[in-house]
Amino acid sequence: MCSVPKYRVDDVIVKFVEKLSNVKHLKLSSIIIERLELANVLSASFPTFINLITLEAFFIKTQQVESLFAFLRFSPNLESLVFTGVYDDDGVYEDAWTLDVVPHCLLMHLKSVEFHYFIGDLMELDLVQLFLQNAGVLQTVIIGIPSLLYHTTKDVEDFIKKVMGQLVKYKWASTDCVIKFELSFPPLL
Predict the structure, then answer these.
(1) Alpha-carbon gap, residue 71 to 171, rounded angstroms
(2) 95 exposed, middle or buried (CB, 10 Å; 0-12, 13-18, 19+)?
(3) What PANTHER family does this protein's entry cite (predicted)?
(4) 3-state SS of the chain?
(5) pLDDT of residue 9
(6) CA 136 to CA 99: how far, in whole Å?
(7) pLDDT tens digits for 29-66?
(8) What's the mean per-residue pLDDT of the chain?
(9) Contact 60/69 with Cβ under 8 angstroms?
(10) Cα separations in angstroms, 73 against 23, 68, 121
(11) Is the pLDDT of residue 163 over 80?
């Protein structure tokens, strides 16, 4: 009788993540972040993504933002972060996020953050504010306004005034940062 070694899913995930740790560009979805959380790999033994320059996060749940920031601690040279949809899947978002430890990339390297399909709710504004207050060399924040939600130029202008009214209330870590607004179009299938 031949015995087959049992592999835990967590062990497979850890090995897979180790193999990915040299990439320059990485895309993470909420499902991947959930698996990393379940495998409890976002700890001190997590590999450093020393070459990672661009990270894209797809449809991240508000409950996963802390895990995403844990991942950023292992991405010291990250320059660009793209969010394609951040949503609150349980409707219980109450408090703004805070950082006990600011990831190195925010202090020294992160130059741009993009938010696609930004609707301007409180948790999105808090997330933008978190970057503005902590990213010391941030040059650009791009906010993608969903084209399907705003039909006139006045609607778009009113939305921009509302968002900027919220974002200028706090001190920004980078005095050179510029916020740009663009229309976001749904992806083609």
Answers:
(1) 25
(2) exposed
(3) F-BOX/RNI SUPERFAMILY PROTEIN-RELATED, FBD DOMAIN-CONTAINING PROTEIN
(4) CCCCCCCCHHHHHHHHHHHHCCCCEEEEEHHHHHHHHHCCCCCCCCCCCCCCCEEEEEEEEHHHHHHHHHHHCCCCCCCEEEEEEEECCCCCCCCCCCCCCCCHHHHHCCCEEEEECCCCCHHHHHHHHHHHHHCCCCCEEEEEEECCCCCCHHHHHHHHHHHHHHHCCCCCCCCCCEEEEEEECCCCC
(5) 60
(6) 14
(7) 888 888 777 767 666 677 899 999 999 998 888 788 88
(8) 85
(9) no
(10) 16, 9, 26
(11) yes
Q: Is a pLDDT exceeding 60 seen at residue 4?
A: no
Whether the model pTM is above 0.90: no
Report phi then psi at 32, rounded to 5.
-65, -45
User: CA-to-CA distance for 115 and 81, rounded, in angstroms?
Assistant: 9
Alpha-carbon distance 56 to 78, whole Å?
A: 11
Bridge partner residues of 132 (DSSP): none
| pLDDT score at 176 | 95
| CA 26 distance to own-chain centroid | 12
Structure tokens at 37: 């959380």
pLDDT tier, 96 (very low <50, low <70, confident <90, very high otherwise) = low
184 pLDDT band (50/70/90 cuts)? Answer: confident
Q: Count CB neighbours of 149 within 10 A.
A: 15
